[in-house]
Specification:
- This protein has 764 residues and is of the alpha/beta class.
- It folds into 3 domains: 281 residues, Aminopeptidase (3-Layer(aba) Sandwich); 181 residues, 3-Layer(bba) Sandwich (Glucose Oxidase, domain 1); 217 residues, Rossmann fold.
- It contains 20 helices and 30 strands.
- It is globular, with a radius of gyration of 29 Å.
């Protein structure tokens, strides 16, 4: 009897044990990281979990709660007041200007006060770079008269075109680019008021000559629908040869009414206008006219006379920079990058992107005040020159490629908005080109969604293929998103979020930020939560990259001609197991730089040459550098050499002429490859690579054709080659006439077969 009972108990015990094992296995599976949850393609992913330490988790929750409680909207608004007071009505803190430099100084002053963090390892790094063009507003002075009454009115000058030097040159008061001497243009004349398009059309040829045009900006506002395109309207005015143009706008929060979008930034239709002579172009706000007894735009007819003083200098190239803070996290933590841009679009820029800049500073301030270290290895970066083409973030990827390869996530805060009345807004987490177009594909998006729920913050997560500086991280498969107060309704309004949300207009002021202070605090606390990602959850962007690739950008000043813009190529290399490294502009190539590299990609030589003068940096390839590349190839290395007839911007857009294209011959002549001329005869060529035939798509005007006698020509002919392969010792060199063949347009790669076959070429 006892033996039967014993056997029964043994059977029951074994059954319980089996059930416990099954349940334990289910629990482990549920708490494990599925490969599809991690950022990189499955072939390159590693999955691991860190056991939860209850003590550590309790401390993390406590620290985060203390930080949240200490987070101060008032302190952020105080900083915004200082930030928006920099260079008022004199360019504010536009990209590449004194105002931008002063903004960085203001940030650094505040950061230097964070002594507890400094004592615990916080470092501050400043880096400098050049952008293609900046505009320095020295004097924009306007005195208006209504009869015997006069008053000086706050005025500013538009920045103009962002990349076309011929178009931006017309807003230079002396016509000499990079001449920063004080030499103002003065105009004193009667005023002709132009309230609408009909009034502009009614003007005769002599009505404006040598007079000051007081023009309603709505007539040339590109963000509202008019019967006449904005540029055409601007040309109507310039044809009449006024002595000066004063644009005016007034505040509106009503959908359908102009409130000056892009007024200071790109000047609406005047961005592309054709000027017959050099003409002062300035803008004012009606709200500043009360000293003249004017309280609305209908009273502008009372203005009879104007005195204008205008001194605007275009700088080519212009100085800019980034400010980088590193707060070390605990051992084993993964880096997280929080970022914003400090420059403004020639407006006070309280919302865009003073709000993001203030949030980042407040996060550092709270950590210092509460003596809390983050649970992640935290980087906080304020970028310069976002508004001119993501220069700051693109440059950052070239100088910090080692960090980029380790990053688990990037959150860009750009920016708070103030929607027009009746239009809703929501905290939008716009993720960008990570693995797919669903939030389930993006780790940082999922994490912030959950934090928003825990904090009681309404959020929406959307796929934005391009948003802000965070997009510069997309090529590197770093989980990234842009946080902005925005909505689908705002996007659907004509003119988009800029028109619907007081961005890039004169009314992007501290007052707008105060009106939105509740949302301001929500966005700040949500961003702060990223500093407290649990250590066991820091698995984003986990990957194994056994191979090494180096992009040589040391002779290429524009950061948009680097891996950050070559999204398809860079992601394909990562999928193939290649870690992407960059040798940044201005570096001198050393043999040690190529150690361990299985692929070297040479970017086209290009610098922002000073107009009508010598280049600011010698971007020529030296014979010593050419020898280093040759020795690398001889020993079995793979080299891709690219050229470009123009400077390339985002999405493969071409800009100014590249006078440096022939400098590449110092490198290629040793392989009997010689670049001969800019421009190809076609945009499409039959091509072959790694045994596959396909159509090579290029931008014909951007190609620099080359002669390649004795080489294997893969596209074109031996004397007008577009692509060729040259065996060099135990290695090989692939020469490509057009960098844009490897780049992306807005909707994806132009040449998927070329990029895919490059991996096969490497394996072969």
């Amino acid at each position: 009897m006892k033996s039967r009972r014993w056997a029964l108990w043994m059977f029951l015990g074994l059954g319980v044990l089996i059930v416990l094992v099954i349940l334990l296995n289910i629990a482990i599976r549920r708490n494990s990281i599925e490969p599809t949850q991690i950022g990189l393609p499955l072939s390159n992913q590693t999955t691991s979990t860190v056991p939860v330490d209850p003590t550590r988790e309790t401390q993390r929750v406590s620290d985060m709660q203390r930080a949240m409680d200490a987070f101060s909207v008032g302190r952020m608004l105080d900083f915004l007041e200082k930030l928006t007071s920099i260079n008022p009505h004199s360019g504010w803190r536009g990209a590449g200007t004194e105002g931008e430099a002063q903004a960085f100084d203001l940030l650094q002053t505040h950061l230097n006060e964070l002594t507890w963090l400094s004592d615990h390892g916080m470092t501050i790094e400043k880096e400098s770079f050049s952008i293609f063009v900046g505009t320095q507003d020295h004097t924009s002075r306007v005195i208006l008269y209504t009869g015997e009454v006069s008053a000086e009115i706050p005025a500013d000058s538009p920045r103009g075109h962002r990349s076309n030097l011929d178009l931006v040159r017309v807003i230079d008061s002396d016509g000499s680019v990079t001449d920063l001497e004080f030499d103002p243009v003065s105009v004193s004349s009667e005023v002709v008021w132009i309230p609408d398009l009909n009034a502009l059309k009614d003007l005769q040829g002599s009505d404006l000559i040598d007079k000051v045009a007081l023009l309603n900006y709505a007539v040339v506002d590109t963000s509202i629908e008019l019967s006449l395109p904005a540029t055409e309207a601007a040309n109507l005015l310039t044809d009449l040869e006024p002595a000066a143009v004063i644009l005016y706008t007034d505040y509106s929060n009503v959908n359908g009414a102009s409130h000056g979008t892009f007024l200071g930034d790109r000047a609406g239709g005047f961005q592309n206008a054709t000027w017959k002579k050099r003409t002062p172009l300035l803008f004012i706000e009606v709200e500043n006219l009360s000293p003249l007894g004017i309280v609305n735009s209908d009273q502008l007819e009372n203005i009879t006379f104007a005195e204008v003083e205008w001194d605007m200098d275009v700088i080519n190239p212009a100085p800019s920079g980034n400010l980088i803070v590193h707060i070390p996290g605990p051992k084993g933590s993964k880096p997280v990058l929080l970022s914003a841009h400090i420059d403004s679009p020639n407006s006070p820029g309280a919302l865009d992107d003073g709000s993001g800049s203030a949030i980042l500073l407040e996060i550092a301030t709270v950590l210092n005040e509460q003596q809390i270290l983050p649970t992640v290895d935290l980087y906080i970066v304020w970028y310069g020159s976002e508004e001119t083409g993501l220069f700051g973030s693109a440059y950052f990827t070239t100088t910090h490629s080692e960090l980029i390869n380790r990053l688990q996530a990037n959150i860009q805060v750009d920016c708070l908005t103030r929607p027009v009345e009746g239009v809703p807004g929501v905290v939008n987490l716009g993720f960008s080109q990570y693995r797919g177009d669903e939030v389930s594909d993006d780790p940082i998006g999922r994490y912030l969604e959950k934090q928003g729920q825990d904090l009681g913050i309404d959020t929406v997560t959307t796929f934005w293929p391009f948003a802000s500086d965070n997009g510069s991280l997309s090529a590197f498969y770093v989980s990234n998103l842009n946080m902005i107060y925005e909505s689908q309704e705002m996007s659907e309004i004509y003119g988009g979020v800029w028109y619907a949300g007081h961005m890039h207009d004169p009314y992007d002021t501290l007052e707008r930020a105060i009106e939105m202070k509740e949302v301001f605090g929500q966005m700040g606390r949500l961003t702060l939560s990223a500093a407290f990602i649990p250590l066991e959850e820091q698995h984003m962007n986990a990957r194994e990259l056994p191979h090494q690739a180096l992009f040589i950008a040391s002779h290429t000043e524009t950061p948009q001609m680097s891996p950050t813009a070559l999204v398809w190529l860079t992601q394909t290399l990562l999928e193939g197991g290649y870690e992407v490294n960059v040798l940044p502009y201005g570096s001198k190539l050393q043999a040690d730089d190529l150690e361990g590299m299985e692929l070297v990609v040479v970017m086209p030589p290009y610098d922002f040459a000073v107009d009508d003068a010598a280049p600011n940096f010698d971007i020529s390839w030296s014979e010593q550098e050419a020898e280093i590349i040759d020795n690398y190839a001889q020993s079995g290395g793979n080299v891709i050499v690219t050229n470009s007839a123009f400077r390339m911007m985002l999405f493969s857009n071409t800009a100014d002429y590249n006078e440096d294209w022939s400098e590449l011959n110092t490198l290629t002549d040793q392989w009997q490859v010689h670049f001969t001329r800019q421009g190809a005869d076609s945009n499409y060529y039959e091509a072959s690579l790694a045994g596959d035939d396909f159509e090579l798509a290029i931008a014909g005007e951007n190609a620099v054709v080359f002669s390649a006698p004795g080489s294997t020509v893969l596209a074109g002919t031996s004397d007008q080659a577009l692509m060729a392969e040259i065996p060099v010792g135990n290695g090989k060199v692939l020469v490509l006439a057009d960098l844009s063949a490897l780049a992306d347009n807005y909707n994806g790669s132009n040449n998927p077969m070329l990029v895919i076959n490059l991996l096969k070429w490497l394996k072969d």
